[in-house]
Amino acid sequence: MPVSPDDGARLTQRIAELYADAELALLTLISSSLVRGIDAPDWAMVKLGELRLIRGRVERELAALDVAAAVAVR
Length: 74
Description:
Largest sheet: none
Order of helices and strands: HH
Number of strands: 0
Shape: elongated
Low-confidence stretches: none
Strand content: under 5%
Helix content: over 70%
Radius of gyration: 18 Å
């Protein structure tokens, strides 16, 4: 199958969209987590306790992004 310059442009656009979507999802996750209970006196300690959970969700999101990018490239 012939390859055209448009193929590269489409692939670049798709990968950029994947990363933009992942960035928005991660920012939404982090911001919604930070805002919950923001007025509580123990907010910082609670957020520190949630950090491991958030890190796990971020790692899963990034793993899914790796898979999606690899599929798009194929």
